[in-house]
Amino acid sequence: MKLTLIHPCIGRRRGDRDYIRTWQMEPLPAATLAGLTPHDVTVRFYDDRMETIPFDEPTDLVAMSIETYTAKRAYQIASEYRSRGVPVVMGGFHASLCPEEVARYAEAVVTGEAEELWPRVLDDARHDRLERLYRSTSRPSLAGLRPDRSIFRGKRYLPIGLVEAGRGCHFKCDFCAVQTVFAQTQTRRPPDEIIAELASIKNEKKLFFFVDDNITSNLAQAKEFFRALIPLGIRWVGQSSINAAHDEEFLDLLVRSGCQGVLIGFESLNPRNLAAMNKSFNTARGGFTQALANLRRHRIRIYGTFVFGYDGDTAASFDETVEFAQEHAMYIAAFNHLTPFPGTPLYRRLADEKRLSYDAWWLDDRYSYNLIPFQPHGMSAEDLQRGCLGARRKFYSWNSILRRSCDTVNRANGFMWRNFFLINALHRADVSGRNHFPLGDESWAGPLLTAN
Ligand code: B12
Q1: Are 329 and 346 in contact (CB under 8 A)?
Q2: Ligand 1 atom closest to Cα of 369?
Q3: Which stretches of 24-91 are assigned E, i.e. beta strand?
């Protein structure tokens, strides 16, 4: 049996081959599926972000992982294969959030995690009896997880090793697809298995990215893992909630285990906005100022993420927020507009308030990256869009990059300082590169092939 795994891109401008460089990392969902696939199945993998998919190459089954932003492109790719008689299976976040929609463009849809279901799906495909919907009803154990990274050989990824230590987060932020899909639960891999995986790829990567939604979701387990990590001597970055920054033992272990920086979702400087998104825990124990001072004392670099468009935001919010990120000399930062992902409490609230501007923004031909898919309060959609773009331009201006590069934490070691310039330059280029990036390939012609 021949299986073709595809990682779809968000889209592509007509006639263009370029894709957003800062997003070109090794996709773990594909490696995870390859690792769960029996050895008698021949696996091929194509990354739509960086190579042309050979639709005419013979294959028995195509499998794709789809996110809301990549759904439209995935349906285009599926139409190509399905018109050639090849069955397509889709899974991933968007499939879990809207299985009915996805089922229109695929022979089979898998919701939730693949670990327990994937062998059955393959067996059903082999015997020509694919079911329309496979639902993972409980959280599988992550013990024994072995992503197969051989599928990435020869491709042009950023030189960062992506590894999972756990999945999910216990917080209930109203905008977050993760809390919806994993029902506010978190599962973790046994530390010795993560260490073995890291050791096997340690020589190929200079920096690791633990892709956990919130590596500190269970602080006690995180500490146990960081202790086990110390002897390995790797450099790593990850995503954390701010509450962990108030725990001295945690911060100490973070540094000793090789952590170079953490992504923290600050989201907003406005407590009213934080309350609306169910993220008031951000203001606990001295809030941002105290947390940032603690992180600075331990020389942890910050990737701050901010969101604009909650009802408390005004025209002044953009400058205030960028100045805050600059004042704290954040290594990098993201300034995104609020995005209603289907299935989230936020999406339901905006739908109830009749504030969504499209039936399904991710499929609408009028929609492109950075357009605001809902009606904000306190400013127009255009002002919100301009404000986000302006914030990114200001934070990634050469002046701001240079000033932040002089910060003692950002230049605390040569490796991260050299990378500071590289990463900031990439993000600077992507500010314009992302703007109005199309969803779906603009040069793809023809109607999407639906199942019924
Ligand atoms: C790492 C990461 C990134 C990396 C990209 C990594 C890469 N390889 O290129 C970076 C930082 C670049 C990134 C960028 C973005 N990301 Co991101 N990212 C993640 C993160 C944290 C981890 C992804 C991962 O590798 N997980 C490990 C894999 C193994 O787990 P998994 O994806 O859950 O897969 C399991 C199941 O879902 C299922 N499954 C998945 N696919 C398939 C397919 C089949 C056929 C089957 C059977 C099963 C199956 O089985 C897997 C194993 O159990 C996720 C959150 C998360 N928990 O997944 C967000 C997440 C995927 N990102 C998200 C978003 C919004 C984005 C951006 C749009 C952000 C932005 N505005 O800039 C961009 C878009 C990039 C793009 N698509 O081109 C959202 C997507 C939400 C949604 N509704 O689609 C997520 C869920 C975060 C969130 N909190 O909402 N991201």
Answers
A1: no
A2: 71
A3: 42-47, 61-65, 88-91
Distance (angstroms) between ligand 1 centre and the Cα of 67 equals 7
What number does the ligand 1 atom closest to the CA of 239 have? 21
338, amino acid identity? L
Pocket mutation for ligand 1, best pick of 19, 67, 179 (most atoms within 8 Å of C-beta) = 67
Choosing from 9, 19, 23 the residue with most ligand 1 atoms within 8 A of its CB, the one to mutate for a pocket test is 23
Q: Whose CA is nearest to atom 67 of ligand 1?
A: 69
**Cα-flanking dihedrals φ and ψ of residue 337, to 5°?**
-80, 155
- d(CA 267, CA 307) in angstroms, rounded, equals 5
Per-residue confidence of the chain (452 residues) as pLDDT tens digits?
999 999 999 999 998 878 999 999 999 999 999 999 999 999 999 999 999 999 999 999 999 999 999 999 999 999 999 999 999 999 999 999 999 999 999 999 999 999 999 999 999 999 999 999 999 989 999 999 999 999 999 999 999 999 999 999 999 999 999 989 998 999 999 999 999 999 999 999 999 999 999 998 889 999 999 999 999 999 999 999 998 999 999 999 999 999 999 999 999 999 999 999 999 888 888 789 999 999 999 999 999 999 999 999 999 999 999 999 999 999 999 999 999 999 999 999 999 999 999 999 999 999 999 999 999 998 999 999 999 999 999 999 999 999 999 999 999 999 999 999 999 999 999 999 999 999 999 999 888 999 76
pTM recorded for the entire structure: 0.96
Q: Which ranges of 141-298 would DSSP assign to H, the alpha helix?
A: 177-181, 191-201, 219-229, 248-256, 271-276, 287-297
Q: Which of 123, 211, 213, 267 to mutate to test the pocket of ligand 1 (most atoms within 8 A of CB)?
A: 211
What one-character DSSP code corresponds to residue 412? S
Give me ligand 1 centre to Cα 94, in Å.
10
CA distances in angstroms from 85 to 64, 104, 449, listed in the order given: 16, 16, 11
